[in-house]
Design goal:
241 residues, alpha/beta, binds magnesium ion, DNA polymerase, domain 1, 48% helix, 6-stranded parallel beta sheet
């Protein structure tokens, strides 16, 4: 059903075959319905620091490390990067606002998809720009026995966050697999940019307020209208070609 998209991916990258053996999941906005809380926490933290920032900007910056998001705003407003002190203070505010939302919910159909993938013997990785300790810990609580620590790449592991390819290249290295044996599931423009720059087949799930055209512009290979839509079409993508 998705043969043209897969064919285009193979030709564009000059790969011999497409045969998925692992799925790399982004976390916020894919596994957790947490982006609305991140966006609101960013707006409040920036406001308190006297910096203009909108929820739309939060969604467009999703995937970046906190430090990189803060640097971007400082460059726009002051024409310079933030100091370490400024970064720490704003990120601390943001984390506190985020934590005050309480428990984060699973994205509908995330656990159903993960369980299905487990039965298909594919490896599962998490590749996230998040450095929220509570969120990473809650992966095990919300998705018991699905994830392993050695199959995670977080904000603590990388020098350059998304949209740099480093996080996805690091996951690829950890997996020991070839780039044509991977599928990425991403919801954010910069996450898609990162995965595509790493040469990986990238499935977009639109779970937020952005127009799907925005995700297409960042080079997504296939796009679905949320995790339920992806769950329903999973078998059609999971083919060796
Ligand atoms: Mg995301």
């Amino acid at each position: 059903m998705f043969s043209p998209e897969i064919e285009k991916f193979l030709q564009g990258n000059n790969y011999p075959v497409f045969c998925p053996k692992a799925v790399f999941f982004d976390m916020d906005g894919v596994l957790f319905d947490s982006m609305k809380y991140h966006a609101s926490a960013w707006v409040k933290a920036m406001q308190q620091a006297g910096l203009p920032f909108t929820e739309y900007e939060a969604y467009m910056n999703e995937g970046r490390t906190g430090a990189s998001t803060i640097d971007g705003v400082f460059m726009n407003i002051y024409g310079r990067k933030a100091t370490e002190e400024e970064k720490q203070s704003i990120y601390h505010l943001k984390s506190n606002f985020f934590e005050s939302h309480g428990k984060t919910e699973r994205m509908p159909f995330a656990i159903e998809l993960l369980k299905k993938i487990k039965t298909q013997n594919l490896e599962i990785f998490v590749v996230t720009g998040s450095g929220q300790p509570s969120l990473i810990d809650s992966l095990e609580e919300n998705f018991p026995k699905i994830f392993q620590k050695q199959k995670m790449v977080t904000a603590f592991d990388v020098k350059h966050g998304k949209p740099n390819p480093e996080p996805y290249l690091m996951a690829l290295k950890k997996s020991g697999l070839k780039p044509w044996e991977i599928m990425v599931v991403e919801n954010a423009p910069l996450g898609i940019e990162s995965a595509k720059a790493a040469g990986l087949f990238t499935i977009g799930v639109n779970t937020g307020p952005l127009n799907s055209n925005v995700l297409s512009e960042y080079g997504v290979d296939i796009i679905f209208d949320g995790m339920k839509d992806l769950y329903n079409h999973w078998e059609n993508i999971l083919i060796c070609k």
